[in-house]
Amino acid sequence: MKLLVLSGDGIGPEITAATVRAVEAVNHRLNLGLTLEAAEAGLVSLEKNGTTLTQAVQEQARAADGVILGPCDTIVYPDVNDGGINPSAWLRKNFDLYANMRPSLARAGAPAKAPDIDLVIARENTEGFYADRSMFAGSGEFMPTKDVALAVRKITREGSRRIVDAACKLAMKRRKKLCIVHKRNVFRMSDGLFYDVAQEVAAGYDGLEVEDTIVDAMAALLIRRPESFDVVVTTNMYGDILSDLAAELSGGLGLGPSLNAGDDRAIAQAAHGSAPDIAGQNIANPVALMASASMLLNWLGERHERPDLVEAATRLDDAIGAQIAENGTKDLGGTLGTDAFGDAVANRIVNFESKNST
Ligand code: NAD
After folding, report:
1. Domains of the chain (ranges plus CATH)?
2. Which of 146, 197, 297, 345 has its CA 20 to 30 A from that of 335?
3. Rounded to whole angstroms, how far apart are CA atoms 8 and 111?
4. Average pLDDT of span 61-85
5. Which ligand 1 atom sits closest to the C-alpha of 77?
6. Nearest residue by C-alpha to atom 8 in ligand 1
7. What is the pLDDT of residue 357?
8. Strand (E) positions, the chain?
9. Residue 331 C-alpha to ligand 1 middle, in angstroms?
10. How far apart are CA 348 and CA 358, in angstroms?
11. Which residue's CA is the closest to the ligand 1 atom numbered 6?
12. 257 CB less than 6 Å from ligand 1?
């Protein structure tokens, strides 16, 4: 099985290197037979090839079983016509990765502002306000005059159905609670459609407890009673914003993993950005990307009926948790650099002794 690793920009190369060390450790320890193949995407590629994502790398991504993608400094990218392809958006759109699962978990040792938070935000990933991916041709953002800018938000029945279905399936494996987040009081048609479809889909899951909340109230409720939420399902931009809030409540943006999954493919990607303010200093927290890689292994294990990959995902996540409890990076109040944290997690995996082993 082949994983493509694209390190991205800013802190991307540092956190990707730490992640690769940990994934290679579990690969060798459990004889998973994974091949990790590195390629360039982002500003390095722009400099060399005139584009942030070459055709060759696009093909490599297509040929891979999964992708680990570091964050990209998209705000400084030139226009797409000048080579500034957003790799994350390209992969989400071209591979139809409609379900962006973003867990927030308060781990022992992390400075969680919400010590009991344990939720997953299921964010629709292929439509909404995202102008670069919601259109068949052209952009969803345009300017009729130099003083007027418009953005079209796309909500479809099928797009809503499939993310809500993925969220319900996940909730049934967890605490069986679903919260639908919307703003149907104002967006009566678009959020109204999302809400109606969400209720219809959720009604098909026996034993699932369903509540719904308007997105602005949700920002307050996440702070007031974060522990009461299990799986939260919502449209693209609401999910993007609320998941950063939830990650911060769990102890910081550097802790927020995410998996972008479709029916056939998935990519691991931290929820945070390229953090240019701390790039190159060996202080970035690699946990978000490492835990995203664990989610990818779990997804591949379930999809290909490979229990060893599911076991690998658990071992990687357990090692991350144990290492945070002992000593983390600076943002967590710890003393380890990015590389030392990666090495420590890799060592834990290599030295793991099963409770059942003699
Ligand atoms: P950001 O998430 O990069 O950083 C916000 C704050 O969180 C900064 O103070 C940063 O230092 C801190 N932070 C983020 N990740 C951290 C980590 N792993 N460890 C410790 N601290 C961390 O958001 P931004 O500064 O608004 O965006 C920077 C760039 O990233 C922009 O170009 C933006 O477009 C891009 N971005 C990319 C993605 C992606 O590739 N998926 C996602 C979000 C933003």
Report:
1. 1-103+256-358 (3.40.718.10), 113-250 (3.40.718.10)
2. 297
3. 27
4. 97
5. 32
6. 275
7. 47
8. 2-6, 35-39, 66-69, 99-105, 118-124, 141-145, 148-151, 177-182, 209-214, 231-234, 259-261, 266-269
9. 13
10. 18
11. 275
12. no
Q: What is the tens place of the pLDDT at every residue in 319-337?
A: 999 999 999 999 999 999 9
**Is the distance from CB of 92 to CB of 69 less than 8 angstroms?**
no
Q: How far is the CA of 192 from the centre of ligand 1 (A)?
A: 32
Q: What gap in Å lies between CA 254 and CA 247, rounded to an integer?
A: 8
Q: Which atom of ligand 1 is nearest to the CA of 276?
A: 28
Q: Which atom of ligand 1 is nearest to the CA of 69?
A: 40
* pLDDT value at residue 304: 97
Q: Is the overall model pTM greater than 0.85, yes or no?
A: yes
The one-letter amino acid code at 161 reads R
Which residues are catalytic, by number?
130, 183, 216, 240, 244
6 lines ligand 1 (CB under 6 A): no
Digit-coded pLDDT (tens) for 116-155: 999 999 999 999 998 887 888 888 999 999 999 999 999 9
What are the tens digits of pLDDT across the range 171-227? 999 999 999 999 999 999 999 999 999 999 999 999 999 999 999 999 999 999 999
